Description:
- The chain is of the alpha+beta class.
- The protein has four helices and ten strands.
Amino acid sequence: EDLKRISREKGETVHVAELMPIGSIKHAESAERAKLKVRSVFRGDETRDQNGDLALFRDLKSLPATVSTINLVLYYGLRKGNCLRIADAQRAYLQAPIGSPVPTYVILPKEMWHGHWFGRYRRVAARLYKAIYGHPTSGDDWSCYFDGTLVTKLQGERVEGVPSLWWFPSLELLVAGYVDDIVASGPEASM
């Protein structure tokens, strides 16, 4: 409440939402592989501005690879001398800076509090600097970050007219991205 009040007094717009822990058991069907997985998720469905109104977000523009795009990469990987690799980008969204022009804050769940905060605060908010699961623009933020990494740092070329597909001419490598899943194919030596 203090954050919202101070923002109103300064005439600033802010977005505020709770951070919610979500847990699941990955590979629950296999006792040997079962593993508890917990992540923090932004409550994008309940994001409010400094006035308590539902927050408005920028238009989204990213397009993940289509089934046809993935099929093209798979086909290229099946050509003689080529191979195929599929991987998850580890903590994908958390690598990308949040692209919101509006300062965004998360209300931390008590499970994340430092011990000395109890009895001193009712709720604790922290500024959000990285994209996070649940934030409405995080998919765009990750897509932009991933594209920038492939094009700027790794010299990949966007394939015109085909969203989320990149060609690396010097490596003869074709890469597609579907959210945080990456499919690459090309000569074994290029992998």
